[in-house]
Amino acid sequence: MKRVKKAIIPAAGLGTRFLPATKAMPKEMLPIVDKPTIQYIVEEAIDSGIEDIIIVTGKGKRAIEDHFDSAFELEQKLLETHKLELLEEVQRSSNMVDIHYIRQKEPKGLGHAVWCARKFIGDEPFAVLLGDDIVKAEVPCLLQLINQYELTGKSVIGVQPIPEEFTHRYGIIDPVEKYGRLYQVKNLVEKPSKSKAPSNMAIMGRYILTPAIFDFLEKQELGAGGEIQLTDAIQKLNELEKVYAYNFEGTRYDVGEKLGFILTSLDFALMNKELSAPLMAALEEILNRKNTYVG
Protein backbone atom coordinates (compact mmCIF):
# COMPACT_ATOMS: atom_id res chain seq x y z
CA MET A 1 0.00 0.00 0.00
CA LYS A 2 1.38 3.39 -1.02
CA ARG A 3 2.03 6.05 1.64
CA VAL A 4 0.22 9.37 1.66
CA LYS A 5 2.95 11.83 0.65
CA LYS A 6 1.10 14.48 -1.37
CA ALA A 7 -1.52 17.04 -0.41
CA ILE A 8 -3.84 19.41 -2.26
CA ILE A 9 -4.79 22.75 -0.71
CA PRO A 10 -7.56 24.44 -2.72
CA ALA A 11 -7.15 28.24 -2.54
CA ALA A 12 -8.94 29.58 -5.60
CA GLY A 13 -12.08 30.92 -3.89
CA LEU A 14 -13.08 34.57 -4.24
CA GLY A 15 -13.42 35.17 -0.48
CA THR A 16 -16.67 37.09 -0.89
CA ARG A 17 -17.56 36.77 2.81
CA PHE A 18 -14.62 39.03 3.66
CA LEU A 19 -15.12 41.75 1.06
CA PRO A 20 -13.90 44.44 0.71
CA ALA A 21 -10.78 43.17 2.56
CA THR A 22 -10.33 40.38 0.02
CA LYS A 23 -10.73 42.57 -3.07
CA ALA A 24 -6.94 42.71 -3.46
CA MET A 25 -5.78 40.23 -0.78
CA PRO A 26 -6.46 36.48 -0.89
CA LYS A 27 -8.58 35.40 2.06
CA GLU A 28 -5.98 32.69 2.72
CA MET A 29 -3.49 35.46 3.54
CA LEU A 30 -5.64 37.09 6.22
CA PRO A 31 -3.61 36.76 9.43
CA ILE A 32 -4.51 34.93 12.60
CA VAL A 33 -2.42 37.06 14.99
CA ASP A 34 0.87 37.14 13.02
CA LYS A 35 0.57 34.24 10.59
CA PRO A 36 -1.63 33.89 7.47
CA THR A 37 -4.33 31.26 7.70
CA ILE A 38 -2.87 29.16 4.88
CA GLN A 39 0.41 28.77 6.76
CA TYR A 40 -1.41 26.98 9.59
CA ILE A 41 -2.77 24.56 6.97
CA VAL A 42 0.64 24.00 5.38
CA GLU A 43 2.24 23.42 8.78
CA GLU A 44 -0.37 20.79 9.66
CA ALA A 45 0.40 18.97 6.40
CA ILE A 46 4.13 19.03 7.13
CA ASP A 47 3.65 17.88 10.73
CA SER A 48 1.62 14.97 9.32
CA GLY A 49 4.49 13.77 7.11
CA ILE A 50 3.40 15.28 3.79
CA GLU A 51 6.37 15.77 1.44
CA ASP A 52 4.82 17.64 -1.51
CA ILE A 53 1.99 20.17 -1.53
CA ILE A 54 0.13 21.61 -4.50
CA ILE A 55 -1.87 24.76 -3.90
CA VAL A 56 -4.71 25.31 -6.37
CA THR A 57 -4.94 29.06 -6.89
CA GLY A 58 -6.93 31.48 -9.00
CA LYS A 59 -6.70 35.01 -10.28
CA GLY A 60 -5.34 37.48 -7.73
CA LYS A 61 -3.65 34.86 -5.54
CA ARG A 62 -0.03 35.76 -6.28
CA ALA A 63 0.49 36.83 -2.66
CA ILE A 64 0.29 33.18 -1.62
CA GLU A 65 3.20 32.25 -3.88
CA ASP A 66 5.19 35.27 -2.68
CA HIS A 67 4.63 34.30 0.96
CA PHE A 68 6.15 30.84 0.51
CA ASP A 69 9.00 32.19 -1.62
CA SER A 70 12.29 33.73 -0.47
CA ALA A 71 12.36 37.49 0.23
CA PHE A 72 16.02 38.39 -0.19
CA GLU A 73 15.84 42.12 0.60
CA LEU A 74 13.72 41.62 3.71
CA GLU A 75 15.88 38.74 4.96
CA GLN A 76 19.07 40.75 4.38
CA LYS A 77 17.66 43.72 6.30
CA LEU A 78 16.68 41.52 9.25
CA LEU A 79 20.15 39.98 9.23
CA GLU A 80 21.86 43.37 9.18
CA THR A 81 19.72 44.66 12.06
CA HIS A 82 20.32 41.46 14.07
CA LYS A 83 16.60 40.59 14.21
CA LEU A 84 17.45 36.93 14.03
CA GLU A 85 14.25 35.54 15.54
CA LEU A 86 12.17 37.39 12.96
CA LEU A 87 14.56 36.25 10.25
CA GLU A 88 14.05 32.64 11.29
CA GLU A 89 10.26 33.06 11.16
CA VAL A 90 10.39 34.68 7.72
CA GLN A 91 12.68 31.99 6.31
CA ARG A 92 10.61 29.19 7.83
CA SER A 93 7.68 29.83 5.48
CA SER A 94 9.93 29.44 2.42
CA ASN A 95 11.90 26.42 3.65
CA MET A 96 9.14 24.21 5.03
CA VAL A 97 8.36 21.84 2.15
CA ASP A 98 8.23 21.59 -1.64
CA ILE A 99 5.19 23.65 -2.70
CA HIS A 100 3.80 23.61 -6.23
CA TYR A 101 1.05 25.70 -7.79
CA ILE A 102 -1.63 25.24 -10.42
CA ARG A 103 -4.36 27.68 -11.40
CA GLN A 104 -8.06 26.83 -11.47
CA LYS A 105 -9.02 28.90 -14.50
CA GLU A 106 -12.77 28.90 -13.75
CA PRO A 107 -14.52 28.86 -10.34
CA LYS A 108 -16.34 25.56 -10.88
CA GLY A 109 -16.32 24.31 -7.29
CA LEU A 110 -14.22 22.32 -4.85
CA GLY A 111 -14.46 19.09 -6.83
CA HIS A 112 -13.09 20.83 -9.90
CA ALA A 113 -10.26 22.40 -7.88
CA VAL A 114 -9.18 18.95 -6.71
CA TRP A 115 -9.49 17.57 -10.26
CA CYS A 116 -7.13 20.31 -11.49
CA ALA A 117 -4.32 18.66 -9.47
CA ARG A 118 -4.84 15.15 -10.89
CA LYS A 119 -1.58 15.06 -12.87
CA PHE A 120 0.40 16.10 -9.79
CA ILE A 121 -1.17 13.29 -7.75
CA GLY A 122 -0.95 10.52 -10.35
CA ASP A 123 -1.93 7.09 -9.00
CA GLU A 124 -1.16 7.79 -5.33
CA PRO A 125 -3.44 8.27 -2.34
CA PHE A 126 -3.47 11.92 -1.31
CA ALA A 127 -4.69 14.44 1.24
CA VAL A 128 -6.96 17.43 0.79
CA LEU A 129 -6.90 20.26 3.34
CA LEU A 130 -9.38 23.13 3.12
CA GLY A 131 -8.22 26.56 4.20
CA ASP A 132 -11.45 27.48 6.02
CA ASP A 133 -10.65 25.04 8.83
CA ILE A 134 -7.77 25.29 11.30
CA VAL A 135 -7.47 22.38 13.74
CA LYS A 136 -5.48 22.56 16.96
CA ALA A 137 -4.74 19.06 18.21
CA GLU A 138 -2.07 17.15 20.10
CA VAL A 139 -1.78 14.78 17.12
CA PRO A 140 -2.22 16.76 13.87
CA CYS A 141 -5.69 16.24 12.43
CA LEU A 142 -4.39 15.09 9.05
CA LEU A 143 -2.02 12.60 10.69
CA GLN A 144 -4.98 11.10 12.55
CA LEU A 145 -6.66 10.48 9.18
CA ILE A 146 -3.48 9.10 7.63
CA ASN A 147 -3.22 6.62 10.52
CA GLN A 148 -6.77 5.44 9.80
CA TYR A 149 -6.01 5.15 6.07
CA GLU A 150 -3.04 2.93 6.88
CA LEU A 151 -5.37 0.68 8.90
CA THR A 152 -8.19 0.50 6.35
CA GLY A 153 -6.49 1.14 2.99
CA LYS A 154 -9.58 3.20 2.06
CA SER A 155 -10.51 6.87 1.76
CA VAL A 156 -11.04 8.59 5.12
CA ILE A 157 -12.95 11.84 5.74
CA GLY A 158 -12.49 14.01 8.82
CA VAL A 159 -15.76 14.68 10.67
CA GLN A 160 -16.98 16.20 13.91
CA PRO A 161 -20.46 16.51 15.44
CA ILE A 162 -22.30 19.82 14.99
CA PRO A 163 -25.61 21.24 16.28
CA GLU A 164 -28.43 19.92 14.10
CA GLU A 165 -29.54 23.43 13.07
CA PHE A 166 -26.24 23.91 11.19
CA THR A 167 -26.40 20.83 8.94
CA HIS A 168 -27.35 23.02 5.94
CA ARG A 169 -23.83 24.50 6.02
CA TYR A 170 -21.88 21.22 5.70
CA GLY A 171 -21.56 17.91 3.94
CA ILE A 172 -23.12 15.32 6.29
CA ILE A 173 -22.38 11.60 6.51
CA ASP A 174 -24.88 8.79 6.95
CA PRO A 175 -22.90 6.23 9.00
CA VAL A 176 -23.70 2.54 8.74
CA GLU A 177 -21.23 1.08 11.27
CA LYS A 178 -19.05 2.53 14.02
CA TYR A 179 -15.70 1.31 15.29
CA GLY A 180 -14.75 3.68 18.11
CA ARG A 181 -14.16 7.05 16.42
CA LEU A 182 -14.18 5.45 12.94
CA TYR A 183 -17.38 5.18 10.88
CA GLN A 184 -18.11 3.26 7.72
CA VAL A 185 -20.06 5.61 5.49
CA LYS A 186 -23.33 4.62 3.84
CA ASN A 187 -24.13 7.94 2.17
CA LEU A 188 -22.92 11.52 2.03
CA VAL A 189 -25.30 14.45 1.60
CA GLU A 190 -24.19 17.96 0.66
CA LYS A 191 -25.72 20.69 2.89
CA PRO A 192 -29.02 19.00 3.85
CA SER A 193 -31.71 20.75 5.87
CA LYS A 194 -32.14 19.73 9.51
CA SER A 195 -35.15 17.57 8.60
CA LYS A 196 -33.26 15.72 5.84
CA ALA A 197 -29.86 15.32 7.52
CA PRO A 198 -29.01 11.63 8.16
CA SER A 199 -26.82 12.55 11.18
CA ASN A 200 -25.08 15.50 12.80
CA MET A 201 -21.59 14.33 11.76
CA ALA A 202 -20.22 17.04 9.48
CA ILE A 203 -17.30 16.89 7.05
CA MET A 204 -14.66 19.28 8.37
CA GLY A 205 -12.23 20.06 5.57
CA ARG A 206 -9.78 17.17 5.87
CA TYR A 207 -9.69 14.17 3.51
CA ILE A 208 -7.51 11.22 2.58
CA LEU A 209 -8.64 10.02 -0.85
CA THR A 210 -7.64 7.23 -3.19
CA PRO A 211 -6.85 8.22 -6.82
CA ALA A 212 -10.05 6.49 -7.99
CA ILE A 213 -11.85 9.71 -7.02
CA PHE A 214 -10.56 11.32 -10.25
CA ASP A 215 -12.64 8.93 -12.36
CA PHE A 216 -15.76 10.58 -10.93
CA LEU A 217 -14.47 14.17 -10.82
CA GLU A 218 -13.56 13.86 -14.50
CA LYS A 219 -17.26 13.60 -15.40
CA GLN A 220 -17.66 17.24 -14.28
CA GLU A 221 -21.20 16.62 -12.97
CA LEU A 222 -22.80 19.67 -11.36
CA GLY A 223 -24.19 19.46 -7.85
CA ALA A 224 -25.36 21.88 -5.15
CA GLY A 225 -24.98 25.52 -6.15
CA GLY A 226 -24.36 24.57 -9.78
CA GLU A 227 -20.79 23.56 -8.91
CA ILE A 228 -18.75 20.36 -9.15
CA GLN A 229 -18.94 19.09 -5.57
CA LEU A 230 -16.25 16.92 -3.98
CA THR A 231 -18.87 15.39 -1.68
CA ASP A 232 -20.85 14.09 -4.67
CA ALA A 233 -17.74 12.43 -6.13
CA ILE A 234 -16.93 10.81 -2.77
CA GLN A 235 -20.48 9.44 -2.69
CA LYS A 236 -19.91 7.84 -6.12
CA LEU A 237 -16.53 6.53 -4.92
CA ASN A 238 -18.33 4.99 -1.93
CA GLU A 239 -20.37 2.87 -4.35
CA LEU A 240 -17.13 1.51 -5.84
CA GLU A 241 -15.05 1.06 -2.69
CA LYS A 242 -15.63 1.64 1.02
CA VAL A 243 -15.25 5.15 2.38
CA TYR A 244 -14.72 5.82 6.07
CA ALA A 245 -15.15 8.87 8.28
CA TYR A 246 -13.10 9.60 11.38
CA ASN A 247 -14.27 11.77 14.27
CA PHE A 248 -10.90 13.43 14.78
CA GLU A 249 -9.69 14.74 18.11
CA GLY A 250 -8.89 18.43 18.52
CA THR A 251 -10.47 21.87 18.38
CA ARG A 252 -11.63 22.97 14.95
CA TYR A 253 -11.73 26.68 14.16
CA ASP A 254 -13.93 28.00 11.35
CA VAL A 255 -12.01 30.87 9.73
CA GLY A 256 -14.19 30.92 6.64
CA GLU A 257 -16.71 33.40 8.05
CA LYS A 258 -16.37 36.67 9.96
CA LEU A 259 -17.39 35.69 13.48
CA GLY A 260 -15.39 32.46 13.39
CA PHE A 261 -12.35 34.36 12.12
CA ILE A 262 -12.61 36.93 14.92
CA LEU A 263 -13.09 34.26 17.61
CA THR A 264 -10.15 32.27 16.25
CA SER A 265 -7.93 35.35 16.32
CA LEU A 266 -8.94 36.06 19.92
CA ASP A 267 -8.37 32.47 21.04
CA PHE A 268 -4.94 32.27 19.39
CA ALA A 269 -3.98 35.66 20.83
CA LEU A 270 -4.98 34.49 24.31
CA MET A 271 -2.63 31.51 23.87
CA ASN A 272 0.22 33.92 23.10
CA LYS A 273 2.30 34.65 26.21
CA GLU A 274 3.06 38.23 25.16
CA LEU A 275 -0.50 39.10 24.16
CA SER A 276 -2.65 37.20 26.66
CA ALA A 277 -2.56 39.56 29.65
CA PRO A 278 -2.84 42.89 27.77
CA LEU A 279 -5.59 41.44 25.56
CA MET A 280 -7.61 40.33 28.58
CA ALA A 281 -7.24 43.80 30.11
CA ALA A 282 -8.31 45.43 26.83
CA LEU A 283 -11.33 43.12 26.49
CA GLU A 284 -12.45 43.94 30.04
CA GLU A 285 -12.13 47.65 29.26
CA ILE A 286 -14.20 47.24 26.09
CA LEU A 287 -16.91 45.32 27.96
CA ASN A 288 -17.01 47.88 30.75
CA ARG A 289 -17.26 50.70 28.23
CA LYS A 290 -20.05 48.92 26.39
CA ASN A 291 -21.96 48.31 29.64
CA THR A 292 -21.60 52.01 30.48
CA TYR A 293 -23.10 52.97 27.09
CA VAL A 294 -25.94 50.48 27.55
CA GLY A 295 -26.64 51.79 31.06
Main features:
295 residues; alpha/beta; Spore Coat Polysaccharide Biosynthesis Protein SpsA, Chain A; 2 domains; two-stranded antiparallel sheet; 11 helices; 13 strands
Structural notes for this entry:
The protein is an alpha/beta fold and 295 residues long. It has 2 domains: 6-256, Spore Coat Polysaccharide Biosynthesis Protein SpsA, Chain A; 257-294, no CATH class. The chain is built from 11 helices and 13 strands. The protein has helices at 37-47, 62-67, 72-80, 84-95, 110-115, 118-121, 141-152, 213-217, 230-240, 258-270, 276-294; strands spanning 6-11, 31-32, 35-36, 52-57, 98-103, 126-129, 133-136, 155-161, 171-179, 182-190, 201-209, 243-247, 251-254. The strands form 3 sheets. The protein has a 9-stranded mixed beta sheet. A hairpin with a 2-residue loop joins strand 2 (31-32) and strand 3 (35-36). It starts with 5 loop residues before the first strand and ends with a helix. The relative contact order is 0.15.
Summarize the structure.
It is built from eleven helices and 13 strands.
The poorly predicted ranges are: none
Note the gap between the termini: 66 Å
Number of helices: 11
Shape, per Cα inertia axes:
globular
Give me the oligomer status.
single chain
CATH architecture of the largest domain: Alpha-Beta Complex
Helix content range: 25-40%
Specify the structural class: alpha/beta
* CATH homologous superfamily placement of the largest domain: Spore Coat Polysaccharide Biosynthesis Protein SpsA, Chain A
Set down the secondary structure blueprint:
Elements: E1 6-11, E2 31-32, E3 35-36, H1 37-47, E4 52-57, H2 62-67, H3 72-80, H4 84-95, E5 98-103, H5 110-115, H6 118-121, E6 126-129, E7 133-136, H7 141-152, E8 155-161, E9 171-179, E10 182-190, E11 201-209, H8 213-217, H9 230-240, E12 243-247, E13 251-254, H10 258-270, H11 276-294
Parallel strand pairs: 1-4, 1-6, 4-5, 8-12
Antiparallel strand pairs: 2-3, 6-11, 7-13, 8-11, 9-10, 10-12
Family: Belongs to the UDPGP type 2 family.
GO biological process, one term: UDP-alpha-D-glucose metabolic process
InterPro entries: GalU_uridylyltTrfase_bac/arc (IPR005771), NTP_transferase_dom (IPR005835), Nucleotide-diphossugar_trans (IPR029044)
